[in-house]
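Justification of resources, computational component.

The compute hours requested in this renewal are based largely on the per-chain cost of generating structure records like the one below. Each record pairs the submitted sequence with a full structure-token output. That output is archived, and it is also reused by downstream analysis tasks.
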Amino acid sequence: MRRWLEALEADKGVDHLTTRSRRWVLVSYGILIVALATWGLLLSRDGGNLRPLLAFLLPLLLFLPSLLGRRPRGHAWLAFVSLLYFMMGVNVAILPGLGWLGWLIALSALALFGGCTLYSRFRSRQLHARASGN
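The structure output for this chain reads:
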């Protein structure tokens, strides 16, 4: 895997890969936010309580400054947190009538994990190359 990534970096360039992985992160982050908001609103519809919505969205929204600041370490932590949402999505997928929403949550969380992992790698290399003057 490491050799493949290094070959990809040599072929496409770190700047290009950083831009592409950032788009991947932002799109999957947006889809995950919408899917979680839908799930939270479905849960709060019955009881009128918005706590589930806040509980689902608050951890993701805490990473917004790292996303906007393009910080590799924040993206790496978001990758770990996204795995929790993947597990939640799989659990929602087994509920009757909510399979589509559960799989949307699980797949967008998995896409976010991949995008954040790649972005943190490429952005770190990009910053390191700029700092060393290459």
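The chain is about 90% helix and 0% strand. The radius of gyration is 17 Å.
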